Automatic annotation (TrEMBL):
Modification type N6-(pyridoxal phosphate)lysine: residues: K56
Domain called Tryptophan synthase beta chain-like PALP: residue spans: 20-342
Lineage of the organism: Bacteria, Pseudomonadati, Pseudomonadota, Gammaproteobacteria, Oceanospirillales
UniProt xrefs under PANTHER family: 1-AMINOCYCLOPROPANE-1-CARBOXYLATE DEAMINASE-RELATED (PTHR43780:SF2)
Membrane-crossing residue ranges in chain numbering: none
Top-level division of the source organism's lineage: Bacteria
Coiled-coil boundaries: none
Keyword Phosphoprotein part of the UniProt annotation: no
Protein name (record): 1-aminocyclopropane-1-carboxylate deaminase
Keywords in alphabetical order: Pyridoxal phosphate
Amino-acid biosynthesis keyword on record: no
Family as reported in the entry's similarity comment: Belongs to the ACC deaminase/D-cysteine desulfhydrase family.
Cofactor: pyridoxal 5'-phosphate
Gene3D superfamilies: 3.40.50.1100
Amino acid sequence: MQLDELEKTINQLPRKRIGFYPTPFHKLENLSRTYGINLFLKREDMAGPGAISGSKMRVAEFVIGQALEEGVDTLITQGAYLTNSGMQFSAAARVAGITPILYLTRDEQQHGTLNEYRGNLLLDRLMDVETHYLSAPSNAFKNVKEDKQHVLDAMHARKAELEAEGHNVLIVPTGGALTAGFVGHVMTFKEIIEQARQAGVEPDYIYHTTGTGTALPGMLAAKIMTGSKVKFRSISVSFYQPDFWINEAIIVERVKDILRTFNADIPDDQSILDEIEVDNRFIGENYATPSEESTAAIKEMAKAEGVFLGPVYTGKGFAGLLEHIRTGKVAPNSNVVFLHTGDTANLFEVPGAAGPTSIIDQ
Ligand SMILES: *Cc1c(COP(=O)(O)O)cnc(C)c1O
């Protein structure tokens, strides 16, 4: 299948256009020189509608497109207190005239009590989002079933309340992980390949940070459908493992769902699994706790290129890429694309995002 054919199918699906697409794509000249590779950045962080955005906007466009067709007027979603997804879904819902509601969890032992609106919480507040805070010791990192149930129960209770008042309510799981949304990142892949070709290169690797597994399925399905040779390398911020809420087998099922939407041939599970390479070594101490490598990676990107990565996702993902380059897992002269999935607001949320001396040195 050709790249253009992907778009034809996509254009038939319900979608509310909210972001600014195609997102920019550009070479990082200084880092490319430093590391002897061709390094490009794909800017999902600039997807809009606000200056602070990310990879969930593409997902939201399709989820909300379908929700509008179904007459939904209220969207409830959840996430860790600093959720990028919750912020982007709230923005998208506002654009679509749907009321957003957030259920946010916080591991107070790990991240302290909330005493100030910062980062995405501040942006959620500016959008006047009804926000409920729940204590959840597991945060997004561990697999504590009671914590998950507690959040689900609270969302469903609110949904029932609103339905009794005559509202049509959609619950969107963490990260926007609904089938309708996964097709969004088919377009990310299409744009990357086309923009890379305009720059005169065929990408060898696409690197990205993965958590809830919403960006990879669409990109990987597009790769399979177009027969591209590019390899995906996913640096995780949540441990991908069997029996966990996210793992490679779940990605395979999502890829197959997308292939079905496109009426494309479905390869056997093992050949899809072979395309997935998740590196769990860069999570650090915990989800949303800056690691030394991620802080260094954020600073290196900012200093070399004037681009800002975030401390929860993209700093860790980029730290993974830098390690792969330094250890030869990325061969010299390779064409590498790093997907900047967003996370910018969290620079203004997570203490220590700029290292131990976040207080101005006297
Ligand atoms: C959600 C998110 C991710 C992880 O995305 P998935 O594709 O859902 O695994 C990465 N980076 C940022 C900034 C995010 O908000």
